[in-house]
Amino acid sequence: MKKLSEAEFEIMQVLWGHDAPMTSNQLLEEMGSSRNWKLASLMTVLARMAEKGAVYCDRTTRTNYYSALISEEEYKLTEGTSFLEKLFHRSAKELVAALYQGRRMSAEDIQELREYLNTLEREE
After folding, report:
1. Taking 90 as the threshold, does the pLDDT of residue 121 lie above it?
2. Is 24 within 8 Å of 39 (Cβ atoms)?
3. CA end-to-end span of the chain, whole Å?
């Protein structure tokens, strides 16, 4: 799947937050003031997302319904892996080191990461 733009990602977050497919009007309402879009703009972005394989448009009724074709977890895994490969040569250690050295990680963040890694080790 192709990378999503920021606007496309915002739409996906709304779709992921709902179990049922949504109309374009429902999406527009749900997105609220985060973007000052007109319906035509949203429809253009949804069409582009359908071409990318991110959303499905059900046109079997008079109203079009949109749903996500990929799960949030699937997208996060793909983007996270790409990010790690591109910037940190597939090294989680380099990522954590960069965040730590840049003072982007608090002591609580480090403790939370340590506890999570310990949990993973116990599960193996």
Report:
1. no
2. yes
3. 31
